[in-house]
Specification:
heterodimer; A: 354 residues; two-stranded antiparallel ribbon; two-stranded antiparallel sheet; B: 506 residues; alpha/beta; Rossmann fold; 3 domains; 6-stranded mixed beta sheet; 37% helix
């Protein structure tokens, strides 16, 4: 009995339950949802699609979890995606060049340098947010709103108001390629996740982030430089958004300053919330947020695959999200548990443990 | 209990938290028009009993009767509805709203679907006048002192037709005059037939106003007594379950030790002209190894500011600091920690504990920042450290993984003490370490302080309680209006002298 209770108390329990419910729905109502085929040595199917398309969101949710753990929020990630996509696209090059009738893949600057430059830009954007918040004490939602609004303008400046199409084929590998039969994007997510988790678990960074988010004033007295911690998390969030920008521009083979990553910051925040993380900061779990991101992407994919009319997809999504959030709310569950076996079990357990 | 007007009875109340028995068969009876003290050490179950009564926690067994009827409030709101009102230790009103709004929040008088402001202000004024408080009710609450805020909270509590008024540590942030005022209000309400449950740590106050005393210990009911028939010494003995003589001897023993004055005259820290505008005037101070230096003065006299400057929590804008002879530039807490200075802040809740982290994490935090974020203390080592300090300071917690916010105040303070002891400081600054803590833990902390000093650690001790300072300190610095005005040597440490210096009457 106690084991069951401990499992339900685990933060990741409810996000996983939500994911399983969405998948269960598909098992009954979406024919062929779980079918995975092998084509050209790659795996194809809805599940693979979810993983591939959900990759940018998963990346964002990693950075966003850390930001929210410090009690802040970063609503500029969508714009950072647009800027980094624009930077990458304009550096990789948008011209089709034919040599003797055969397309030649050329870049303006070598691709590794282009990507490195993109990520440096993303880090700088994150640092900008962090500086406004940690050093100048501007409220996070306002501070990141500056970049959210200005960012799309900056992206348009870079692309000169055009949608830049990318023709350099090797670049498509990031968002569209496959490794060992799986989308390459998921490996990038895996690597980022691994590095961040190592940082969190093997150094004291995780502890410091939690402490700063839970009680900033007390953390200062214990010698933690809370402003530096904030600077770090916003920078990491910027970096995650930059990588997501590369994935998205690589996947759609272009940089669209207006639409790349539009409103994705809201999905990222939602992913963190669905992961059961507190919006006020403190304890956090990145894997739970990743599951949250997967839930969101599964809902989106499901809506497309069962053929919900496009004009009401957002409504359907909202309803599903509300239901999942209710499922996660302890208060709401209590309403149902009040007279049920759960309560009786709890009192019984208390007596036993005494 | 013959023919007395029994207002409230709580019978065989039991409350379990996972792994902890918070209340075991506790009885409590409140009569009309009496002030009834609820006494006990921290963790004795006072707060839990109050929470059960006010609907914050659900009771697991037992029965509550109000005026002979069985009640079981499920929320504070419901409790208020049946006439049980509470005023908490920390005023929990909205400081940015007006006094009147605070009194009527959630039940504003309405007229044509709008708030009837005039009516509300009039009624708020009347409610406060009943308590002999004449203030402008349209001002925001934060423009008044904590004492007035407390009065507003009481006015609010009483205005909802309270039959039972619970005052949970209302006096801990009030000065003497304000306490007297509060007492006169309590007496007035008592005459109106309201039953008052008074939770406090101050024994004198209990004897000043209370008619009866109920004592709890370790979640169990010890007994109900008439105040007149229970001498203070006996009350203390009942609360801590120890003989008072034994306790007295323990403290006295320490006093003898302290009188030996065996600290060396080696200097640990010297500050020259250290100061910061608007915080504290430049001051000189020398701290010797193995001494307990007291900072005395009224609240707001600059005691805390002086300490914060030494710890680098505030950046000084002039002056120099020397530690063991070498000049140090300390402008952040981390630099202070690295120079082996530790600081337990005055406000345990706001600046001390990290509520959602475990006891273990709270303990290792300062050591971890001293070592740097790269050198993460291994989990197994953390657990060992936590267990060691839980034993060393006898912190009452079911496990090191318990969230620190679930501990009682005294135990939280011990966790913070553990956090700093772990960094092996040479100078430990304790700012009001015993505020809101039961007598048993208080004595323990005082004993520890003297022990540390005997081992060669320097301690700066700040407290509002002169008795406590006299018992522990070997030297004192007196502050007034943010200026250091005097240093008193051991021979001068007498209540009268200190009082005079603080008041500026010399």
């Amino acid at each position: 009995m106690k084991d069951i209770k401990n499992i339900t108390k685990n933060q990741i329990f409810w996000p996983i339950t939500a994911l399983l419910l969405v998948l269960l729905f598909n098992l009954f109502f979406t024919p062929g949802f779980f079918k995975v085929e092998v084509k050209d040595g790659h795996l194809f199917g809805s599940i693979i699609d979810i993983i591939n398309r959900g990759s940018p969101l998963m990346l964002l949710s990693i950075g966003m979890t850390l930001v929210i753990a410090t009690g802040g929020t970063d609503i500029s990630v969508g714009s950072v995606i647009a800027i980094s996509a624009a930077v990458a696209a304009s550096l990789v090059g948008g011209e089709m060049i034919f040599v003797e009738g055969v397309q030649e893949y050329v870049t303006l600057v070598p691709m590794p340098i282009a990507i490195l430059a993109t990520l440096v830009v993303a880090v700088l954007l994150g640092l900008w947010n962090g500086t406004l918040i940690a050093k100048l004490g501007i409220q996070p939602i306002i501070a990141t709103m500056i970049l959210m609004v200005a960012g799309r303008g900056i992206a348009q400046l870079i692309t000169a108001g055009q949608i830049i199409t990318i023709y350099y084929k090797p670049y498509f590998f990031f968002g569209g390629g496959y490794l060992l039969g799986l989308p390459f994007a998921i490996f990038i997510v895996g690597i980022v996740l691994l590095i961040i988790m190592l940082l969190i678990k093997k150094t004291a960074l995780g502890l410091f982030i939690q402490a700063s988010g839970c009680n900033a004033s007390a953390s200062k007295y214990t010698g933690i430089y809370v402003d530096r911690i904030k600077l770090i998390v916003y920078t990491l969030s910027g970096l995650c958004a930059g990588i997501a920008g590369v994935l998205i521009s690589s996947n759609i083979k272009s940089a669209d300053a207006n639409n790349a990553g539009l409103f994705i910051e809201l999905d990222a925040i939602l992913a963190v919330a669905m992961g059961g993380n507190s919006m006020t900061g403190g304890k956090f779990s990145i894997p739970a947020s990743i599951v949250g991101a997967l839930v969101i992407q599964s809902i989106t994919t499901t809506i497309y695959s069962i053929g919900v009319p496009p004009e009401i997809t957002l409504v359907v999504k909202a309803v599903v999200v509300i239901m999942i959030c209710l499922l996660q709310s302890e208060e709401f569950r209590k309403l149902f548990a009040n007279t049920s076996w759960l309560q009786r079990r709890n009192t019984l357990e208390n007596k036993i443990s005494n | 209990m013959k023919g007395e007007n029994i207002l409230l009875t709580m019978k065989n109340i039991c409350k379990y938290f996972t792994g902890v028995k918070a209340l075991i068969n506790v009885d409590f009876t409140l009569r009309q028009g009496e002030i009834h003290a609820l006494m006990g050490e921290n963790g004795a179950g006072k707060s839990t009993l109050i929470k059960v009564l006010t609907g914050v926690e659900k009771l697991d067994e037992g029965e509550i009767q109000l005026l002979g009827e069985k009640v079981q409030p499920k929320s504070t709101h419901e409790a208020q509805g049946i006439g049980i009102s509470t005023v908490y230790q920390e005023v929990n009103l909205c400081s940015n709203l007006s006094v009147a709004e605070n009194i009527f929040i959630g039940r504003e008088p309405m007229k044509f679907g709008k708030i009837a402001w005039k009516e509300m202000h009039k009624r708020a004024k009347m409610a406060l006048e009943k308590l002999d408080v004449a203030i402008d009710v349209t001002q925001t609450l934060d423009s008044y002192s904590v004492a007035i805020q407390q009065m507003v909270a009481i006015a609010r509590a009483v205005d909802v037709d309270a039959k039972v008024l619970i005052l949970d540590e209302p006096t801990s942030s009030l000065d003497k005059k304000e306490v007297e005022k509060l007492f006169s209000i309590m007496t007035k309400l008592k005459k109106e037939g309201i039953g008052i449950i008074f939770v406090t740590h101050f024994l004198d106050q209990v004897y000043a106003v209370c008619d009866r005393i109920t004592v709890l210990r370790n979640g169990e009911f010890v007994g109900e007594y008439q105040t007149k028939e229970l001498p203070k010494v006996k009350l203390v003995a009942k609360m801590i379950g120890k003989d008072y003589e034994e306790l007295n001897a323990a403290i006295k023993g320490d006093e003898h030790k302290e009188n030996k004055k065996d600290f060396t005259q080696e200097v640990f820290l010297e500050a020259k002209g250290l100061g910061k505008k608007t915080e504290i005037e430049p001051y000189d101070v020398t701290i010797y190894k193995g001494e307990v230096l007291g900072l005395a003065g009224l609240l707001g006299s600059g005691r805390t500011e002086m300490a914060r400057l030494l710890f680098g929590a505030v950046k000084p804008d002039e002056g120099e600091m020397y530690i063991e002879g070498t000049k140090k530039n300390i402008i952040t807490p981390l630099q202070a920690i690295k120079s082996e200075i530790a600081y337990c802040p005055e406000n345990r809740k706001a600046d001390g504990i990290i509520p959602d982290l475990s006891v273990r994490e709270n303990i290792i935090l300062a050591l971890q920042s001293k070592r740097g974020w790269m050198k993460y203390i291994k989990r197994s080592e953390q657990e060992k450290i936590a267990d060691d300090y839980i034993n060393l300071l006898s912190i009452k917690t079911p496990s090191a993984e318990k969230m620190v916010k679930e501990l009682s105040g005294g135990n939280q303070q011990k966790v913070i003490l553990a956090r700093w002891l772990l960094t092996q400081p040479k100078l430990l600054i304790l700012d009001e370490p015993t505020r809101g803590i039961d007598i048993g833990t208080k004595t323990e902390i005082q004993k520890l302080v003297i022990e540390f000093a005997n081992q060669g650690m320097s301690v700066i001790f700040i407290s509002s309680e002169l008795d406590e300072m006299l018992r522990t300190c070997s030297r004192m610095v007196v502050l007034r209006d943010r200026v250091k005005i005097a240093e008193l040597t051991e021979d001068e440490l007498e209540t009268n002298v200190i009082m005079n210096t603080i008041a500026g009457g010399n």
